[in-house]
C-alpha cells in the first residue's frame, strides 16, 4: 500500500453507509476508525520521539558534565604540576645560590669537642709556629665575642643566657 492511498476500517465503512445499528455495535466492542488509529499512532510516535529526545538530551548533558569534570581534574593536575615545578625551582635556586653571609655561632669553642678533634686528625693540624689564618680567624677578629662554629648552637645559647640573666649586685 502506498502512503497516499485511502485506508478504511470496518467502522469507517459503517459510518460511510450510515448503518447506525452496526456503528453502535462496533463502538460498544472497541472498534476504531482510521482517524482514531492515526491519532493513536501519532501519539505513540510522538511519545517515542519525545522519549528519544529526552534520552538524547540526558545523554548530552551527562557527556557535558563528564567533560567538565575531566577539564576540572586536568586543570587541578596542571596547577599542582606548576606548583611543584615552582617549588622545585625555588629549591634549586636556594641550593645554587648559597647565603652570602657565613653562619657564625656566638660562643667560645667547647672543651669537649676540641680534644676529640685534635686526637682524631693530628696530622691535619699545622705546626704551632705556622698558624694559617682562615676566613673564620678573620671573622672572629672583626667581630669580638663571636667564635668560629666549633660548638653546637645549643651550647652557645646556654652560655649567653647564663651571662645575660645575671643581675649586678
Would you identify the regions where 5 or more consecutive residues have pLDDT less than 50? 137-141
Structural class: mainly alpha
**Roughly what fraction of the amino acids lie in strands?**
under 5%
Estimate the mean pLDDT confidence. 74
Question: What is the strand tally?
Answer: 0
Q: Give the SSE order as H and E letters.
A: HHHHHH
Distinct helical segment count: 6
How would a crystallographer describe the biggest sheet? none
Helix content: 55-70%
Query: Quick one: overall form?
Result: rod-shaped
Computed Rg: 50 Å
- Report the end-to-end length measured between terminal Cα atoms: 127 Å
Search tags:
mainly alpha; 64% helix; 0% strand; 169 residues
Would you mind describing this structure in some detail?
The chain has helices at residues 10-17, 20-28, 34-96, 113-120, 135-142, 153-164. The chain is mainly alpha-helical. The longest helix has 63 residues, at 34-96. The chain has a domain at 10-94.
Any chance you could write out the topology, listing elements then pairs?
Blueprint: H1 10-17, H2 20-28, H3 34-96, H4 113-120, H5 135-142, H6 153-164
Amino acid at each position: 500500500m502506498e502512503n497516499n492511498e485511502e485506508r478504511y476500517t470496518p467502522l469507517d465503512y459503517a459510518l460511510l453507509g450510515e448503518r447506525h445499528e452496526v456503528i453502535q455495535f462496533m463502538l460498544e466492542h472497541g472498534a476504531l476508525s482510521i482517524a482514531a488509529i492515526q491519532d493513536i499512532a501519532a501519539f505513540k510516535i510522538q511519545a517515542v520521539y519525545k522519549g528519544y529526545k529526552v534520552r538524547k538530551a540526558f545523554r548530552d548533558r551527562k557527556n557535558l558534565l563528564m567533560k567538565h569534570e575531566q577539564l576540572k581534574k586536568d586543570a587541578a593536575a596542571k596547577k599542582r604540576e606548576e606548583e611543584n615545578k615552582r617549588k622545585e625551582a625555588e629549591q634549586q635556586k636556594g641550593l645554587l645560590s648559597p647565603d652570602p653571609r657565613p653562619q657564625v655561632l656566638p660562643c667560645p669553642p667547647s672543651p669537649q669537642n676540641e680534644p676529640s678533634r685534635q686526637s682524631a686528625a693530628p696530622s691535619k693540624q699545622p705546626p704551632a709556629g705556622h698558624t694559617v689564618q682562615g676566613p673564620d680567624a678573620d671573622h672572629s677578629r672583626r667581630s669580638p665575642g663571636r667564635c668560629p662554629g666549633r660548638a653546637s648552637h645549643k651550647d652557645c645559647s646556654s652560655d649567653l643566657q647564663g651571662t645575660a640573666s645575671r643581675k649586678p649586685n
